[in-house]
Write a structure and sequence with these properties.
261 residues; alpha/beta; Aminopeptidase; 2 domains; 6-stranded mixed sheet; 6 helices; 13 strands; 30% helix; 24% strand; binds zinc ion
């Protein structure tokens, strides 16, 4: 089983990615791509990368950047192609994750439909679902292909997660686990997968105190103090707080505390 992982965009040339909150899409996609690679290797998958550094084989134009990625995957005879991106919107109001396939009815759609809900749970953000797009990397690759949009880099509460290695690992794991589930693979050199972190029941409460950097100017956030702890209400369903010991906690809709890290 061979998978081509495509960290979207380049650091130089015409195909640089979106930016937001001090983040560059091309940096995030490379971090995620490398994490997905490690996890897929743990499932016994052979991985090829369209880039494992700043740039794909071509940076001249967007078209050649994309066609060089497709050519690399096709030359490697990859069985599947997984492109990794972060999203952005004109109004800077989009949030959540979505997974593109070329069209309905193919393997791409099936794989996307397994990854999409896992990606949303990993990010504790909205599941925007499976979408279809006549995108070059989906259309011209010989292998069934998906393109994962892992949160919005220009939306504050998504961006704060894309800066957080705990969330990046969760996002990468969602993609790798989704692929493994779709193909019925089990881990070969990793300990058995534990319960997803967001399903582990927690009986203790977060430590008091915080070191949260206030995020002002974004309507998606509000902050308040509760029982001596500073709480950030990040979205309709996710509350984050950080203890003085560096631990990260999230509150679900029923206000159960979940330790993320
Ligand atoms: Zn992108």
């Amino acid at each position: 089983m061979k998978v081509c992982i495509d960290p979207g965009h380049n650091s130089t040339g015409k195909d640089t990615g979106a930016e937001g909150y001090g983040l560059k899409e091309q940096d995030i996609t490379l971090i995620l791509g490398r994490k997905v690679r490690e996890l897929l290797i743990g499932y016994g998958v052979t991985v090829v990368m369209t880039r494992d550094g700043d740039n794909a084989p071509s940076t001249a134009t967007v078209e050649t950047s994309l066609s060089s990625r497709v050519a690399l995957s096709n030359a490697a005879r990859a069985d599947y192609f997984i492109s990794i991106h972060t999203n952005a919107s004109d109004t800077h109001s989009g949030t959540g994750s979505e997974v593109f396939a070329l069209k309905a009815g193919g393997e791409g759609e099936k794989l996307a439909s397994v990854i999409a809900p896992k990606l949303a749970i990993a990010g504790l953000w909205a599941n925007r679902g499976v979408k279809f797009g006549n995108l070059q990397v989906l259309r011209d690759t010989d292998a069934p292909a998906v393109l994962c949009e892992c949160g919005f880099i220009d939306y504050a509460s998504d961006a704060v997660k894309l800066k957080d290695d705990v969330y990046l690992q969760r996002i990468a794991k969602a993609i790798a686990d989704g692929f493994a589930e779709y193909k019925g693979l089990s881990t070969i050199n990793q300990p058995p997968t534990s319960e997803p972190v967001n399903k582990v029941p927690v009986t203790s409460t977060p430590p008091k105190g915080d070191n949260i950097t206030p995020l002002n100017g974004d309507k998606g956030w509000d902050e308040y103090t509760e029982d001596g702890r500073r709480i950030i209400h990040a979205t309709n369903y996710a509350y984050l707080t950080i203890g003085t010991d560096g631990s990260v906690w999230s509150y679900g809709p029923n206000r159960d505390a979940i330790k993320l890290a």
